[in-house]
Structures are given as C-alpha cells and as structure tokens.
Design a protein that fits this description.
Elements (H helix, E strand, L loop, with lengths): L2 H15 L6 H17 L4 H15 L2 H4 L4 H16 L15 E5 L6 H14 L4 E5 L5 H14 L3 E2 L7 H11 L5 E5 L8 H14 L3 E7 L4 H13 L4 E5 L8 H10 L3 E4 L10 E2 L2 H9 L4 H11 L2 H12 L5 H11 L4 H6 L9
Parallel strand pairs: 1-4, 1-5, 2-3, 2-4, 5-6, 6-7
Antiparallel strand pairs: 7-8
Helix pairs in contact: 1-2, 1-5, 2-3, 3-5, 5-12, 6-7, 8-9, 10-11
This protein binds guanosine-5'-triphosphate and magnesium ion.
Length: 356
C-alpha cells in the first residue's frame, strides 16, 4: 500500500542522512520533498501541514542540530511525528459488559460483510463466542452472503426474515443465541448516508445500544474515505474505523489522515479478501515503521502464518520433527510462497526492502 510513499520518503531522507551538518537550505529542500511525497500519497493537506510544521520545528531545535548525524535524527523525528498523527498507541476493541454489540456501518461495497466475518475469526481466536447478525432487510442476497461467510468461519448467524425490521432481527438474534457472548451486526450499505438508511442506522443504534460503532472504510478511496468518515461521525457517531483493502496498491492517504482529521481511532485493518484471515489490530507504531520502510517484523510473522496453508504447514512440521523432511516437502513449502500475491504482501513488511 505505501510502496510509492515509502520510496519517495527514503529518497528524500537519504540525501539528508549523509550530511554532518544540516544547513537550512538542505533542510528546506528535504522537507519540500517529503511534503510532495505525502501530498502525492493523497494525505489530507491539513495533516501534511501539521506533520511538517512539527518536524520542521524539531529539526531546527538543538536536539537535531547538535546531533552527530542530524539526517538520521531527522528520520527519527519524522517517525515519531508520524506515530503521533496515527494516534500514538493501539486502541483495543471494547467488549466489556454482558453480551456487547458491535455495529459495522459504511457505504456500499466498503467491505462490511467481509469484515464481520473477519472480526468473528479475530474474536474466536481470543476465546470469545461471537454471532453474526444481518440487518439488511431489503436485499435478500445480503443475508445469503453473510450466512455463507458465517458458515465458512464457523460462527452462528441470524439474518432477516420476510417483513422484519432490522432491530426486530437483532432482538430475535439475542434471544435465539443464548450461547453467544458478543454480537456483530452487519448493516445495509448505500452510496450515500441519507434518507431511509440514516433513519435505519439511528433507530438500530438506539435499540441495540452498541458498545462499538465501527465505520468500515475502503482504503482505496483516499480523501473520499476521510469525507465519509466525517459525515458518518456527525450523523451516527462512530467509535472507530476498520480500514479495508490495505492489500491494494492505493496511495494510502486515508490510513494516514483519518485519525487526525476525525479524532477517532483506526481499530483494525484488513489486507485480504479471504474471510478466514482475521482482522489485524491497527498499531500506530507498526504502521509508521511500514511507511518509513523500516519493515514490520511482527506483522510479517503474523501475515506469513495466515498466508501459508495451515494444513500443509502442520504436515511438514510433523515430518520435520520426525526427521523425515525431504526435498518434496521443501518443494511444497516453496510452492506455498509462490501462491499469487503471497510474496508481494510479505515483501512490504520486510525491513529495508524499499531502501534505495
Ligand atoms: N482485496 C480485498 N478485498 C476486500 C477486502 N475486504 C473486502 N473485500 C472485497 O470487497 C468487496 C465488497 O465486500 P463486502 O464485504 O461485500 O462489502 P459490503 O460493505 O458488505 O457491501 P454492501 O453490503 O453491498 O454494502 C468483496 O468483493 C470483498 O471480497 C480486503 O481487505 N481486501
Ligand atoms: Mg454487505
């Protein structure tokens, strides 16, 4: 996602890195390049201004000027300020209390239904017993899609019956699934947040009192995602975001801007259309490392685990333990890595991959 931005930042920083002294001219030129790179990546201009003014102020301070390697120090300053813009620290999903409800809302096609399934996988792995609830009463195919995903990831699911209102379906689900300890509500998507959808979401919110109202945003849509976020936040109030399609080669501006513009945290990201791959917790520090091109080693380990077929891995591990690992197994392992997209996704997380 951040390949181009990372490349441009690295080029700008490389020039400064070698310098023993940072002259005002070098600094101005370096910051200008960084500003262009951020704008090119579709980062909100107010965010760029805030970030750059903080970096510039610190670059002119003693802390950087007196450092033995001011270019390197500047790189560290940019990283720290990026982390601040991204929200400082990880914000966990709230799930306290008895049978909490999480509502997933968003415009058409943003990835709500897929994210519901992925969130269920994330929670199941942590010992929770989530249920999926469909509330799109107008589109029968929406219920069917959710049911299929629920079956694939192995969690219970309730979808609307003919003539039911969304909140009636939700109430029925709470009663019908006493064994579940949290409920994930998938909602209808429209091109715009207005009219019946707005009414429906507000009413649903009143009736089910969600602990979390997560807005699902397509990271590919850049500045649009930021506008959508502001509008949803004003109208229905959101507690956080899920950014989807982070595996695309979009410019990544939304991911960088959204927290600062709205004041609400990104809680999860999704980097795969496969429902069985869980949502990934959003961590400002790890994301900033990725943007800087320093790699995300923790992310790399997690992703490698998800992308490699678990069944094949288990078999190979078993053989290795018994000392029967052979060339055929090695070939199988390499084949796993050659599956479409696997290496592309992993290389973005490798430290220094993009360093010029
Ligand atoms: N590559 C990729 N595709 C995704 C991701 N998340 C969702 N998708 C795809 O995006 C498309 C829309 O996803 P849905 O989950 O149906 O979106 P939705 O918001 O529920 O759509 P509506 O209910 O029609 O509003 C599907 O083709 C998904 O497979 C992701 O993280 N990466
Ligand atoms: Mg849907």
């Amino acid at each position: 996602m951040f390949e181009r931005l990372t490349g441009a930042l690295q080029r700008a920083l490389k020039r400064l890195r070698g310098q023993g002294v940072l002259t005002p001219e070098d600094l101005r030129e370096g910051l200008r390049e960084i500003r262009l790179a951020l704008l090119e990546a579709d980062v909100n201009y107010k965010v760029v201004r805030e970030l750059l003014s903080r970096v510039e102020k610190r670059a002119l301070s003693e802390e950087v000027q007196r450092s033995i390697a001011p270019g390197r120090k500047l790189e560290a300053v940019l990283f720290e300020e990026l982390v601040r813009i991204l929200g400082e620290r990880r914000e966990a999903l709230r799930l306290e209390g008895k049978r909490p409800v999480v509502m997933l809302v968003g415009v058409e096609g943003s990835g709500k239904t897929t994210a519901c399934a992925k969130l269920a996988v994330y929670l199941s792995k942590r010992g929770r017993r989530p249920a999926l609830v469909g509330t799109d009463t107008r589109r029968p195919a929406a219920g069917e899609q959710l049911r299929q995903l629920a079956e694939k990831v192995g969690v219970p699911c309730i979808t609307p019956e003919e003539g039911e209102e969304p909140w009636e379906t939700a109430r029925r689900a709470f009663k019908a699934l006493p064994g579940c300890d949290c409920f994930l509500l998938d909602t209808a998507g429209r091109m715009h947040l207005e009219g019946d959808l707005l009414y429906e979401l507000k009413r649903l919110k009143e009736e089910v009192k969600p602990l979390e109202m997560l807005l699902v945003l397509d990271a590919v849509t850049g500045q649009d995602a930021v506008n959508i976020a502001q509008r949803f936040n004003e109208e229905v109030g959101v507690t956080g975001f899920i950014l989807t399609k982070m595996d695309s080669d979009a410019r990544g501006g939304a991911a960088i801007s959204i927290r600062w513009v709205t004041g609400r945290p990104i809680k999860f990201i999704s980097s795969s259309e496969r429902p069985e791959v869980p949502l990934e917790e959003f961590d400002p520090e790890r994301m900033a490392k990725r943007i800087m091109g320093w790699g995300d080693v923790e992310g790399l380990m997690e992703r490698a685990e998800q992308l490699v077929d678990e069944e094949v891995e288990r078999r190979i591990e078993e053989k290795a333990r018994k000392g029967r690992f052979d060339l055929e197994d090695l070939r199988e392992q390499l084949r796993q890595l050659r599956r479409p997209g696997v290496l592309d996704q992993l290389k973005q997380l490798l430290p220094g991959w993009l360093r010029p």
